[in-house]
Amino acid sequence: MWPVRVTCITFSRKGIMQNTISFRRKARARWGVIFVIPTCVVLFVFVFYPICYTLVLSLNEYNFAYDMHMKFVGFKNFLDMFKDTQFLTALKNTMQFTVFMFVILVVLALSLALLLFNKKRRSWFYRVSIFMPIVVPASLICILFSFMLADNFGIVNKFLVSIGLSSWSHNWLTDAKTARVWVIIVSVWGKVGFCTILFLSGLQNISQDMFEAAEIDGAVGWKKLFYIMIPNLTETFVVVGIWAILQCLKLFVTPNVLTKGGPANATLVLYQNIYNTAFNYFDMGYAAAQAFVLTALVMIFSLLNMKISKGDK
Amino acid sequence: MKKVLSILLVLSLVMVTVFASGAGEASTGGKKTITIGAESWEINKIFLEHAAKEFMAAHPDVTVEIVTIADQTKLSNYILDWAKGSTDVDLVFLDGGIFSAEYAAKGLIYDFEKDLNFFKDFPKSNFTAGSLETGLQNGAQVCLPAIYEVYGISINKQMFKEAGLVDANGEPLPIKTWDDFVNYAEKLTKKDKNGTITQVGGSIQFGNNLNTILGAALYSQFGNVYTSDGITFNVDNDYVRNMIAAWQKGIQSGALSQSTFVDNAGGRNGFKAGQIAMCYEAAGRWMEAVATIGAENLALIPIPGEYGGTICFGCQMVIPKASKNPDLVCQFIKEAVYGEYCQTNAFTTYGKMSVIQKHFDAALEATPIWKGIADAMSKAKPMITYEESQKWLEGLDQIFQSGLVSKTTTAADMVKQILTLSASIRK
Question: From CA A221, how far away is CA A231, in angstroms rounded?
Answer without folding.
Answer: 15
